# Entry
Amino acid sequence: MNVPIILAGGVGSRVGADRPKQFIDILGKPVLVYTIELFQNHPEIDAIEVVCIKSHMDYLKGLVEEFNLTKVKWITEGGVDFQHSVMNGIENLKGELDDDDIVLVHYGASPFTTPDIVSDAIRVAKEKGNSSPAISSPLLLGSNDGDKSVNWIDRDAVMILNTPQCFKFGYVTQLFEEAVEKDLIDKVEPHTTTLMYLMGREIYLSKSNQLNIKITTKEDLDLFKGYVMMKQNE
# Structure
């Protein structure tokens, strides 16, 4: 089985809206629904789990019915951050998935992702045990030194990591069990990939593109609205 764990537990304070950003309506449909539909319509996806902020779990259940999101099999309460939400999602799937099944950890506020990005991430994870979509940086990079920058950073030495980050279920389960045992949770920026770096694990790269971003700001919302309008007119 291939099962996305869609993370919809954040509050999205940087957007400055009256609701979490994943629930903001864009042309009559919440951002999260666009994201779920990507996986709902993907032929390689068998079922979907959404890890949701507690205050919106009932609202999400209504959206699942309203938009006929039939692959959504589990709605799980979110954690205090990305890492804990992933852990909640994994814990809920124990007994449901086999070790070689693939889970795809994806932001609910990342609706720009395309089916080919999903397919390649699954392919690499099946072969290597894990994967993350990635692109080289198209931007000029410099160090952050307060109100100035004093060093150039070679962009060929860095990659921009996106989602869905994919794992064999047995691999990611063991990863978090080891991290808890070694008291590594909350020791770095709370992402699965940063935890992997801390634990000396390799991350295998799959294909992505520059549009595969997480909505973080109001400008990102405007960009997505334009993207939806463009797709509707194709």
